[in-house]
Design a protein that fits this description.
51 residues, 2 helices, DUF6131, transmembrane helix
Length: 51
């Protein structure tokens, strides 16, 4: 999720497409939050990290 968000964010910024930038930013933030929760010992949906 983090990698997909980063890719979409970069493509959106390079191609100047607002919806890709927005979706990429949201996926990046959600992936980082889920990874932080997994690192503190609260796995979400059975996973500790969301790449």
């Amino acid at each position: 999720m983090i990698i997909l968000g980063a890719i979409l964010l970069v493509i959106g910024l390079l191609a100047n497409i607002g919806i890709l930038t927005t979706i990429g930013g949201i996926l990046l933030v959600v992936g980082l939050i889920l990874t932080l929760l997994g690192a503190v010992g609260r796995p979400i949906a059975g996973r500790r990290t969301f790449y």
